[in-house]
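Much of what follows relies on a compact textual record of a protein's fold. A record is reproduced here so that you can trace the correspondence yourselves:

. . .
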Amino acid sequence: MAEPFSVSVGVRGYETDSQGHLNQAVYLQYAEHARWSLLRASGIAQADLLAEGVGPVVLESTIRYLAELHAGDETTVSCAFVWGERKTFRVEQTITKADGTVAATVSSVGGLLDLEERRMVAEPRERFRALAADPARLGL
């Protein structure tokens, strides 16, 4: 398996809570940013998905907090799609501090929603493969 895609994100002061830790909701924003960055890197823009009448959806997310993040910390957020045989897929992500310490993991179940029918696309893997200029980045 190839090295997971990753993006750098610096923790900004306004993202922290009253105890000086990265706010719990922001971990999900970092994960979302990495997912969209991976789609763009594979050649899929949000406009491409909308033109096809589909949109990615997150059905479930689990965050495991392993080390504190504070304002000024530099992180790397990895992102890897894990394809199944049905309508859903997994996205595995790791938020790592500059010193290599894993701060959190985010594991999500996603799908591809048909925006007109309001139903999950039966073969999301094949739809992503058809849209991507570089499907290998998506593990396809």
User: Anything to note?
Assistant: The beta strands are 5-10, 54-65, 74-83, 88-97, 102-114, 119-120. The radius of gyration is 16 Å. The longest strand covers residues 102-114.
